[in-house]
């Protein structure tokens, strides 16, 4: 996976010929990483949308009044 | 970088943008403080998290496709040919500055020893994207779901603003060529579009419960924490300064860039690669801020919320031409923008029952729109680009700045890319039942459960003896 294993070997040539991309898997893993990133992004929306719906449903079930929250203020 | 001078120039430019990004982070800190200060106690934590989560959502989508759109779309596509390849297609060939450099799989979208600019330039634009989404966030507090806001934030932050930037904020953009569009510090490309988008969402979302009486009279739901609002707006001012710097190229030799043989002219330039100076825009930033504050204090009769917001609106209004205005022109333009934005805010609120909780549509949308129009008159006849000068509608050359072009540009920003997409996406989300929180939750407070748990925890702690 290491793209560079010896900095002297890597940089020991004219500057314009030095290979710039030095992250692990350079040149071979970018496509896979992007797919993984997109799956994580979309997955996050799905998971958190579900969480939010449950939370909203739970609060709305009890039909509290507009001032009920005042009895919950804890930072006296 | 094979010699010391080119290394210094490159690494100075890299560091310059890096610093602007750090400064611009303060805009978001300010927006978070401001929104929490403007919201009611029972919604505080939800309001904070909604605005905070736009950071990762816009960032990852900006990485996946937002940055690519900016480089691909300057031609429309299909509206005016690129000066790089003379084609009207998406710029995805092997041209210099092709969008192919910035696909998410590109080796330039990572640590690359041969590229010191892509990441910091990507980040500077990304911070503009956060700002666009955050402007929308403030207007719709206390009644939108986080899910819906996330989708809307991605739409404005990683799609619609980047299309407008490609069209009107890129040296090769079709709006410069066809219309002579000029918007150096983003009156339109950030502020008018975000204000328009927020208005489109508000039209579907509706007002907060209790905002309007049964006879339709608006009620004031003022900021609950004026100090948080105050510090927030000061931080936004500070970050906005970084934004101004980020809209410039700090050091550039325009002689060879414009094809002038034997001419060397080192200068800072705006985003269109036409000359300006950091020194000059510092005059204008502060004078337009002052104009906004002076006018805001007067028109709002000393109301602190509007006075602070008016400082911002003053800068926003003058921003389109702040690369060239005289400082007193900037000040006056800032004042005009504030008066119009303030008046329009209350007129729209009463007439259309629009509940813009923080005045975002006015401060960003109306002031930005007005700023573009004024710029067309004050800078009438200036070139919109250094590469060529031509007639309006021609498309192969760059039209000069003019009132009609700026007015049409303002319509494109506020209505075409702002209001209409905001309205349509909000309609779709509303149709899915995902846009607005239930009425019971709005009344009880989005933080009800967290507060109840905190109270129980506090009871247990306070009754403990050891």
Notes on the structure:
The complex is a heterodimer of chains A (76) and B (466). Chain A has 76 residues and is mainly α. Chain A has one domain. Chain A contains two helices and no strands. Chain A has helices at 7-11, 30-61. Chain A is elongated. By secondary structure, chain B is an all-alpha fold. Chain B has one domain (4-254, 273-456): Ammonium transporter fold (Orthogonal Bundle). Chain B contains 15 helices and three strands. Chain B is globular, with a radius of gyration of 23 Å. The mean pLDDT of chain B is 96. Chains A and B meet through helix 2 of A and helix 2, helix 4, helix 14 and helix 15 of B.
Distance between the termini of chain B: 66 Å
Kindly report the oligomeric state of this protein.
heterodimer
User: In CATH, what is the class of chain B?
Assistant: Mainly Alpha
Number of domains of chain B: 1
Strands of chain A, count: 0
**Number of alpha- plus pi-helical segments of chain A:** 2
Helical content band of chain A: 40-55%
In CATH terms, the superfamily of chain B is Ammonium transporter AmtB like domains
Gyration radius of chain B, rounded: 23 Å
Give the amount of beta strand of chain A, in percent. Answer: under 5%
Number of helices in the DSSP assignment of chain B: 15
Specify the CATH architecture of chain B.
Orthogonal Bundle
Low-confidence stretches of chain A: none
Number of strands of chain B: 3
Reconstruct the topology from this structure.
The complex is a heterodimer of chains A (76) and B (466).
Chain A lengths: L6 H5 L18 H32 L15
Chain B lengths: L3 H35 L5 H29 L45 H22 L6 H23 L5 H6 L7 H19 L20 H21 L2 E5 H4 L8 E4 L5 E2 L1 H22 L4 H15 L8 H26 L7 H19 L24 H29 L7 H6 L3 H15 L4
Antiparallel strand pairs in B: 1-2, 2-3
